[in-house]
Design a protein that fits this description.
This protein is of the alpha/beta class. It has 2 domains: about 15-175, 3-Layer(aba) Sandwich (Alpha/beta knot); about 195-275, tRNA(m1g37)methyltransferase, domain 2 (Trp Operon Repressor, Chain A). The chain has 9 helices and 7 strands, in the order H-E-H-E-E-E-H-E-H-E-H-E-H-H-H-H. The chain has helices at about 1-15, 40-45, 85-95, 115-125, 145-150, 165-175, 220-240, 240-245, 250-275, and strands spanning about 20-25, 50-55, 70, 80, 100-115, 130-135, 150-155. The protein has a 5-stranded parallel sheet with strand order 2-1-6-5-7, with helices on both faces. The chain is elongated and about 75 Å long. It starts with a helix and ends with a helix.
Amino acid sequence: MKDSMKDSMKDSMKDSMKELRFNILTLFPSFFDNFFATSLVGRAVKQKIVTYRIIDIRNFGIGRHKKVDDYTFSGEVGMLLRHDVLTNAYHSLIRTEALERMYTIYLAPQGKPLDQGLAYDLASIAEKKSLTLVCGHYEGVDQRFIDNCVDKEVSIGDYVLSGGESAALVLMDAIIRLKKHVIGNPASLRGESFEKNLLKHHQYTRPFDKNIPSILTSGHHKAIFDWKQANKIAITYEKRPDLFKEYPISPLEFNALKEHVYQKFSYQQNKKRSHSK
């Protein structure tokens, strides 16, 4: 029994240490050079916690000029990445990696909006499968490629970029930092912005002055915790009402929020009066 428990623990440790694997289909391979060489991500690559392959779509272009795009049949202005070119680039991965071990994401404006919940979901998938990111360009990609090869479309926001490379960087950063051993202190992931639909509380460092809430230097851990929670709720209420609506606020927290709103309103009214004198 003990041996089976040890084996189970070893397997679990191996699973947690498995590298995150990214495949990136792009027309601009050098776009990713600094990303994979810098900061937390660069360290994770050196430690082989993260591995990646970049597939240059241009290498699979048609003819002498390696043509990768063409006009749309529906007559829109602009060019579309060709289905056959993308499919050949995609199949070059399948030759070295089993299809069932790949999860393919197309970065697109019509995709599911990226939030912290989706980042956690994709990080969980990445523990079992490599993530293949397809970076569109021009007017996008032929729908047949999406229908045949893509598992999920993801959008990083309601705005237009010149290509999917910037979106791929954002997505990978959000996923990589959730991987065990990437962040030095895993506790720092708790209480971040968007955890439980709340923004992060205000933070301060040296030099000290009178504008820093005195409670933060009181050494009273329970009082500091309560202040941080109340501050998170107040900030989210003021700056992201869409998130606040999703937060299950308790009666005690609601009363504290009302007091905060009243105090802020009173302060603003007094400020107006002093300016009008």
